[in-house]
Design brief:
This protein is an alpha/beta fold and 168 residues long. The chain contains 6 helices and 8 strands, in the order αβααβββαβαββαβ. It is 40% helix and 18% strand. The strands form 2 sheets. A 6-stranded parallel sheet has the order 2-1-3-5-7-8, sandwiched between helices. Strands 4-6 form a two-stranded antiparallel sheet. Bound molecules: iron/sulfur cluster.
Length: 168
Amino acid sequence: MTQSKKRSDIVQDLVARLAATGETLLGRSLAIRHVDAGSCGGCEMELLSVTLMWDHLGRHGICMVDDPRWADILLITGVSSTGLAESARQCLAAMARPRFVVAVGDCAVDGGIFKSSSSVLGGAGAILPVDLVISGCPPSPARIISGLLAVLDANRVPSAPGSPAGRL
Ligand code: SF4
């Protein structure tokens, strides 16, 4: 078995586990809304690799959605910039509960390499209650899928509002 085949098997196993956990927690398929709050585009490249597997994800009932009213997970990439903070807040406000916020990439964790910029408020936690942060610049597709799985696993029993974010 080649190294890439092994990686592919690992990702497919993660996807199947993610779908099963989403089904257990939500009683239906899992919908994800992505918001780029101020990224360099690197995290989106990795997310693109995840979405290129959407065919496979879709078979398990996991999908990306445009309308936050349909979403269970708000996935944030990039720094929280002054220009996009309100859009991210409005996106979360439109989502029904249970809902989860996952910050993907070092910029979304704490501002990353851009944290000293005057137009950067910080990571996603500076503007939203975050359930899980996934570090990396950028994190790999397998790490992103593992993070989504972790946040669902951790919230089988919902946590109290304002509890600290987990970290992957
Ligand atoms: S974490 Fe790295 S790859 Fe992702 S948006 Fe920030 S600088 Fe770009």
